[in-house]
Amino acid sequence: MKKINIAFIWHFHQPNYQQKPDSDFLLPWVRLHASKDYLDMLKKIDGFKNLKLNFNFSPILLDSLDEYSRGAKDLHLRLLLKKEDDLSIEDKVYILNNYFDLNYKNMVLKKSYYTELYNRRANALKLNVDMFSPQEYSDVMAIFTLLWIDESFKMEYPELDELFSKEKNYTLEDRKKLYVIQLDIIRRILEEYKKYQDKGKIEVSVSPCYHSILPLLINLNNDEVRNKENLPKDFDGTQDAKEQIRRAVEKYEKYFQRKPRGMWLSEQCVSNDTLSMLNDEGFLWTVLDEGILSKTTGKEFIRDFEGNLENPFDLNVNYKLKSCNSLNMLFADSFFANLLNFGYGSYDSKLAANDMYEKIKTIQSKLQNSPRDNHIITIALDGENCWETYQNDGNEFLNTLYRLIDEDESLSTVLVSDFLETESVKSEVLNNIESGSWINRNFDLWAGEPVKNVAWLYLSSVKKDFENYKNQKLQNIDNVQDKKEILDKLEKAYREILICEGSDWYWWYGEPNESKSDYIFDFLFRSHLINVYEFLGIDVPEYLTLPLSVVTTKPLRNPVSLISPSLVCDKDDILKEWENAGYIFIPDGPTSNISRLVKNIHFGYDKEFIYFRFELNKNSMKMFIENIENQIAIYFINEYSSNFSSIRLVNKNDNIYPIIRNQFSHELRFVFNSKYISRIFLNKAGEYNLWNQVSAKKSSIAYKDVIELKVSYEDLELPLDYKKQIAFCILDATNELINEVYPQDVMITVLDENSF
Asked: How many CB atoms within 10 Å of residue 355?
């Protein structure tokens, strides 16, 4: 068979977790993933004769690993090394909130005693520091840390095997041993990667220095940003984008003593200007998502019901832009990335590996008649987070997959630069590239959502203050020593600005992503902005002291005027009857095509009704499964009601949206799928936190291309003169489980006509 090349590209990234350059890390993920993933992923090569792999590190992660290797600590680690009898109440609260954050099925259940402690914590109705004894606190910290160390290291560290075999009664000395082992693993990582790269077994590429979204720095107000409300109009980060690239090269050369050949653009976000910058810097290659290629060429990649491409030719070749003569583009097969990230972890590891191998062979068979001699399958994705969903941290899966490929003489794993520099490899040429990312081909996860936009506004304001200070101080300074001190201040402050351009802050702000540590990301983002002023020695603006969630309590646009739409459910009607409606912006998330039912929501009102328009996610599998009950629930607060009751829908986890802690006067629900919609079910709060069904006499609902609904003030028992005293929120739910809440913090209050 015609030989097929495979490029595995494993991407490693963690953001900046330090409040100050020399402070503790506020979150432990660099240390934990270092002992579980980074070195382990590299050392798998040793078991195979021909295997070659590509890895990518963000420079901020390289720096963080270096700092840990020189003794840096994080908050988890400080407690790990503390005597259990000396733990304060605050320490115990921190342990209860943070030392159970790991995969239940594949990590927690490995240790039966820890499972018992985990369940005791999970089932507690409220936090109580006395639920564990001092010894149990010691065991919680020790076992949690153990579970974040890959078991493959037992062969190299005999004391680790002893600690794994122990069930309980871990001592402070045991916990110190765990840290010594983690520290040794961390100190080996960069040294080993350099050694393997020098031997030609791997290629290491780099990302922009602080993992910034370069296309947004270059043009924040580009056409891919759908909602520009509050976005700074005059933001120009073009020079910052160049600096993010320049510093990335500098960091790479520091750790690997050579110039990088490839750059993994943060979140695979791309634009023509971004590629020009990489080309000018002399990069040989970058990797993008297949969706960007489809968007650029106008040709979708059609797959059969098993996910196999009908025609894999266009995806499995390398490209260049006509205007960039040195930079190559590879396009990653997103089907493989999605299987590895979200699919294979729930299957038997060996069966999953064989399935992936067969899918590779199917591509190979379809390329036999291609006129091109050199094809490449690009499998590029996050190389650390997905393995927690696999049996034994993905070891069986990867070892089986690598063995199948390594023993197949018609398949060859390659280093990207080696492949591109093969004399017979020619590039296909594109006239331009369409802008976008690996997620839904746009930038919605980093800009365009209200809270994200305010974060950009903050950054822009701080940048202006920095530039003003810089221009004033450097204008008429002659003294060499004074100038040196000013330049030192400016460099420290500028680094903080570059850190605040990182993708992670905007990823976690607002909708749709949520972590248990959103408040820490908000604190860190604002801390780095505050650092700019403190390093320059000037007053900190008061607005930076407030969490963005406080500042942006309504992630939506209010109605411009009264509306009275006719509920025709025409998908194009948004340009007519709904153009003055309010708008709840719902950016697409990485898994939204599967989970989310609603894409966008418009709302408005006149003197008799509140109107709602729901644009549905027709790609969601939930729309087509008969035994799944999809529903929208709208909860109202009528200030004049005599009774109020709690939401009856079930929350999926401990992350409770503030808004659903309220009690409500009325509840309206309806059920739907791709073809059917139920009648309206209206309920009124009764005594003892119960709900009573009432008649929705004047309210009505319609469904065709979209769902449109009008709710009568009379049905809500609200006098027309007092309709401004009613507020509402909207829940998207499946089988009584809450998927999404809009908005999350503050109810939407209906305005009267005098407010417009």
From this structure: 18
